What we know:
Elements: H1 13-26, H2 39-46, H3 50-62, E1 66-69, E2 73-76, H4 81-106, H5 110-122
Antiparallel strand pairs: 1-2
Helix pairs in contact: 1-3, 2-3
Amino acid sequence: MNIFIDNKSGAPIYDQIYSQIKAQIINGALNEDDPLPSIRSLAKDLRISVITTKRAYDELEKEGFIYTIAGKGCFVAPKNVELLREENLKKIEAYMQEITRLAASCGLSREDIIEMFTIMGED
């Protein structure tokens, strides 16, 4: 599992860890029941606080991406199709907001956007 901390990004470190692990689970780089590094081990490898790593793992567990077995560690949870669908819907909504913003700056109407989308779907 590869995690890179970007100190210049402005995003909190726990959020960078959370986002990268979540992305690896969603895209299949981490599979169901794969073990994650221990909180202490990951903190040591990334040279960050154990509390920061724990917060990232807690967020992942709260959202159903990982589960914890006492004394054994954290593991990738079985993929919840509804959860993945919801994640993708959030991404689509973000892209649509960006499209709306860009369209407004170009003076495009809703009908223009729909026509563009229809044409792209025909390919």
